[in-house]
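Subject: Predicted fold for pantoate--beta-alanine ligase (AMP-forming), 283 residues

User T.R. writes:
Posting the sequence so we have a shared reference for the thread.
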Amino acid sequence: MIVITAPEQMHEWLHSYRGGKSIGFVPTMGALHAGHEVLLQQAQHENDITVLSIFVNPTQFNVQSDFEAYPRTTERDLRIAEHHDVDVVYMPETDRMYPEGWRIFIEPGTAADPLEGLGRPGHFRGVATIVTKLFNTVQPTRAYFGKKDYQQLAVIRQMVSELNFDISVVGVETVRHDDGLAMSSRNIRLSDVQRSTAPVIHQALVSAKNLVDAGETSPDVVINTMTSRLAAADGCRIEYIEIVRQTDLQTISTINCPSVICIAVWFDEVRLIDNIEIEPPQR
Ligand code: PAF
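User M.O. replies:
I've generated the structure tokens; pasting them so everyone works from the same file.
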């Protein structure tokens, strides 16, 4: 008889007992773009089997009309999945994920509180709930998430750790268009003029990182510089620019630890987010 006293030992024992193949999992809401393709490639490269899920999750939308307007491009998505040799595409029906009478939610941890959590109440509760349901069903070895949704990645890492899921969460670098705009399913909703202005988000982030690399340690100075630049960009309305610690997304008063600059802006009805990781200046 074996006595095990820690969750990770239990996981280790189960792995060796079951043997078997590793499963790389890429959860998505469809409308696949090059950013998702990079996740699929990495999952493929690092695992025996790749599973892609496509499910537009109603519980993570604050506004019903956003849920309804979310692009659904299933046939195209399936062609992309095929192209990347995905082994299984999991596309559950909404009433199988949320059947009549269903009421259990996963309450996310502290990583859900700042930034997006302030402007989109309940969003991460919906994300944590659906990701838990998908994890329980797919039972992946590794799950892949883009760093563009930096806070989502932090919320899921915290959830996996606090709920003792036996899953490695892999954060993958943001994929960008040639002009720097982060790939996002929302970009197609930008007008031509907005699309040509939107790269200013990444430009402002890179300039801010350069400022920090050159020795600036004041978050206020960095944020003010970014604000001036973005305020001058036609049609761009800033929702927030924040500099937070990478580990727990808490606001900092001096840039003296690995941090991340997070930004959310609007172009009319289209909300875009992006971020850049920064290191404290070398002394
Ligand atoms: O990032 C997304 O596409 C979604 O939030 C996710 C993780 C698939 C949950 O619905």
